[in-house]
Amino acid sequence: MTPRTLYDRIWDEHLVTTRADGTSLLYIDRHLVHEVTSPQAFEGLREAGRPLRRPNAILSVADHNVPTIDQEKGIADLTCRLQVEALEANVKTYGVPYLPLLDERQGIVHVVGPEQGFTLPGTTVVCGDSHTSTHGAFGALAFGIGTSEVEHVLATQTLPQRKSRNLRVRFEGALPRGLGAKDLALALIGRIGTAGGTGHVMEFTGPAVRALSMEGRMTLCNMSIEGGARSGLVAPDDTTFAYLHGRPLAPKGPLWEAALAHWQTLASDEAASFDQEVILDIRSLAPQVTWGTSPQWVTDIGGRVPDPAEAASADEREAMRRALEYMDLRPGTPMEAIPLQAVFIGSCTNGRIEDLREAAAVARGRKVAPGVRALVVPGSGLVKSQAEAEGLDRIFLEAGFEWRQPGCSMCLGMNEDRLAEGVRCASTSNRNFEGRQGRGSRTHLVSPGMAAAAAVTGRFTDVRRLMEM
Amino acid sequence: MEPFTTLTGIAAPLLRSHIDTDLIIPKQFLTTLVRSGLGRHLFHEWRYDAEGRERPDFVLNQAPYRQASILLAGPNFGCGSSREHAPWALKDFGIRALLAPSFADIFFTNCFANGLLPVQLPMEILETLASMEGPLTVDLPAQQVRGGGHTFPFEIEPACKAVLLEGLDEIRRTEANLADIAAYEARRRVEAPWLEIRSH
Ligand code: SF4
To answer: May I ask the CATH class of domain B6-168?
Structure first.
């Protein structure tokens, strides 16, 4: 048999049929549903009088719209509330498993799925959300889809797909102290650009990836969409299996043993060929921070705001000039000299327990700098309780951070957690697009440790210095 | 879905790179429960100032581009979120064809589900098209963009072309494979029994 990549294998295992026009019909094992991208899909189903094929293959939760204070009091914003109510009505009509707002398991869909053991190695996972790539950390083929495709999956449990190309990302060397998966992701996107992975599935390899926890692997795969790839993959190993063992929706007993035997075979063949390969030496990598309005515009914390005059092309020069104008930054400014007014720690990129531990380690015994508003939003209710059990909430509160209830929150500001115009924010989320956190707001993407360091110093600061003290 | 065959119309130039879905339709309009009505919020932050007044310097606020049915854009158009609100907003505004050097994957797929034609053309050609006066014709059967005496051919996958030309309903197409799907499910229940979720 010709050597195959992990992606090829999962693809082959899910191929229902190849149609006359050459498109492939792929079976979908797991479907995550949230309130923003599903109402029109359910509506379409209803209008056509179609049944839902496999309700048990779905897990649904509201996350984008939900408030992060006083969730007990319900959702004040009318349009947000109507959307969550629409989801609740739909899941009831169609018998879809749902985690209600006040359930401890509620949270961001990409935090909740893995936590519940819903995401499994070798499966296909979809959601009407681009960061579905997160689940690739388990060796699942996971990708974001549009609402029409959500409807398609609800009705048929399949999707017509064209096969992507294979891209291998190999990180050489071990991660230096004080750096994490977020720095790997940002450095990679800085290298290949936000369109670098378009049309490809990325598989992450190398000793640093093997050394990452599941939380770290999820951070890395989460950002593969920011590098243009619809999916990222990490081959499953003992770290994966240990994480999944005993999770509520993971297989149990003899089924666990059978699953494990299969999962242990899930890897790219030694001789498999990739259409593209990117090798990144990370031995001397420094913490990363973005300076522009695209995740690819990133530099070392020791670096400076670049000069558009040095851009490779006229188009790029103009794009950089516009980004710097929006970000209100002058070329040549050292990154560490940039003051900020807001810090956001949370999101499906960095809202897991390990991320909160990393931030708390920096916040411990320090105070949020005057003039800075800092928010910590756990990715799920379970992350929140775990953090509280470890006393992380007290560390944050004593340092002057706000401690919130779970949700997407200021990652995109669909609820009231929004930045005012002109406010500069160090954010652990994944997108620094214009207006992402609020109209006219300025987002710099960083790791949780770097975000905490920014909060306590009031400017971008190399977190490693605070760790040495 | 309404089929797409040949379209002649005004082409609005917006030749920036990496126009993301947050720019195409910002988050505050994502709470809608329907597919229609998003056209007036298309490119909201660029189109209106903080008080909601039109910014006269934005291309879609200028004649004749208010009537545009074709958009000329830079590389990596539609990057970012999977929100189908982006193609819904474009379509509701009146855009039916998008011409750009490249598109982000999910956005590209979402276009076909909504009868929107994304055409890939090199940047030099887009610049030529942007500098021309008068309407353009996007001819899908012939796979050509024509205008100002020029003709530019483009590539499109036959399956994607068929979806637009015939206005195919993808779910109905897949329903023709229901027996294959059932057979696949039966096989998987034996081969990978751990995939069945028993408790929720
Ligand atoms: S946390 Fe942000 S990126 Fe993640 S699903 Fe929510 S809005 Fe999307």
So the answer is: alpha beta
